[in-house]
Design brief:
Elements (H helix, E strand, L loop, with lengths): L13 E9 L2 E7 L5 E5 L9 E7 L6 H8 L5 H4 L2 E3 L4 E2 L5 E2 L15 H15 L2 E11 L1 H12 L6 E5 L17 E7 L10 E2 L3 E2 L2 H11 L7 E2 L15 E6 L9 E6 L19 H12 L20 H9 L18 H9 L6
Parallel strand pairs: 4-5, 4-8, 8-9, 9-10, 10-15
Antiparallel strand pairs: 1-2, 2-3, 3-5, 6-7, 11-12, 13-14, 14-15
Helix pairs in contact: 3-4, 7-8
């Protein structure tokens, strides 16, 4: 079930200073207690410019290196100037790698907190690298697509966009309560017999592609009126011609977010996005879908009023700065902007303590 390819709390967060060349990019490894995770950086990265962060999530039975090879986004890190992270899940009772995503896929009998783990990975990267807080994106194949939806449901304060491929959202709306709008691009083949385009059941049942999209149209408070994304285009080299059509929902959405469906007629569970002869220019996901992600930034400004010293984290230094301005009308320390620095400002700061901006 869900075999997609022929392959088999921050505690002591550490950055392992190991680097190597990888298709023009630099790879450093981060670790928040569950093993080393590769983070690809542009070869000229110096931390002077905030860059988008893209995270790819593997499918059930797949590994991090396999989803990296499949999507081949690391080959574009230098030219497109973004940070690229490829974490791994844990193994289930059969020994297969998985993400504990929705009740349908794929953490059966598991209580591993992959949602919390992935948030910690993002926050660790934010703390140690220059990340554009309005441009954090998650994509994933199959089980990784399910997991990208869970991240949008539970961490919409962080995530700008998700691009699930052949993976769907929660069937039960009560399981998904996003606090902020999130851009969604759902990619799915109509001939998918593993995660069916129209929905189906594994251990539990799951919604189809169109139902998943409409759920997010609702969460983002968009009108249900859709519009065409233009002429059909090619996304799957295994299907002849232009098999993919785009349907867009963006009318009256909260803060102008977009929900979009790319329906691949005749495509199976694992679309062939690229040709090996030229993995960059002929990588249809790495051009069109990566463009979509980087173009769909988190709406509105991201502010952190409790961060008095401007180091992008609310910590003890900010508390000391606030206490130093006690009773004054210092605008930076006056978190609630009521004209005086007092206990209310301190309480707000303590409520945000540890937040990374």
């Amino acid at each position: 079930m869900l075999k997609i390819m022929n392959t088999s709390t921050i505690t002591s967060a550490v950055v392992i200073l190991v680097s190597c060349a990888a298709q023009g990019s630099v790879v450093e490894y981060i670790n928040n207690g569950r093993g080393s995770v590769p983070l690809h950086l542009p070869s000229d990265y110096d931390g002077s410019k905030d860059l988008p962060l893209v995270i790819s999530l593997h499918g059930y039975t797949q590994t991090g290196p396999e989803i990296q090879s499949y999507l081949n986004l690391d080959a574009q890190v230098d030219d497109r100037e973004f940070l690229y992270c490829v974490p791994e899940g844990t193994n289930d009772f059969t020994g297969a790698p998985f993400w504990n995503a929705t009740d349908a896929c794929c953490g059966f009998f598991s209580n591993v907190d992959d949602s919390g783990y992935l948030r910690e990975i993002i926050e660790l990267i934010q703390a140690d690298y220059a990340v554009d807080a309005r441009s954090i994106h998650i994509t994933g194949l199959s089980n990784g697509g399910f997991m990208s939806y869970r991240m949008a449901c539970e961490h919409s304060d962080l995530i700008a966009s998700i691009v699930p491929i052949a993976g769907v959202t929660f069937l039960n709306d009560a399981s998904c309560t996003p606090s902020d709008p999130v851009h969604v691009l759902h990619i799915h083949g109509t001939a998918d017999s593993t995660v069916e385009y129209g929905g189906g059941c594994f251990f539990n049942c799951y919604p189809g592609a169109e139902e998943s999209v409409l759920k997010w149209v609702g969460y983002n408070e968009c009108d249900v009126t859709s519009e065409s994304g233009g002429p059909a285009f090619n996304m799957d080299w295994s299907v002849g011609g232009n098999e993919t059509t785009s349907t867009i929902y963006e009318q009256n959405c909260v803060e102008n977010v977009t929900v979009e469906l790319w329906k691949m007629t005749g495509s199976e569970h694992v679309p062939n996005f690229r040709r090996n002869s030229d993995p960059v220019t002929e990588n249809l996901f790495g051009t069109r879908a990566l463009d979509w992600m980087l173009d769909h930034r988190k709406p509105g400004p991201i502010t952190c009023p409790s961060d008095i010293n401007g180091d992008r984290i609310v910590d003890a230094a900010d508390v000391l700065d606030l206490i130093g301005e006690w009773g004054s009308n210092n605008s930076q320390a006056d978190v609630d902007q009521n004209g005086v620095v007092n206990i209310m400002d301190l309480l707000i700061m303590l409520d945000n303590f540890g937040k990374i901006c």
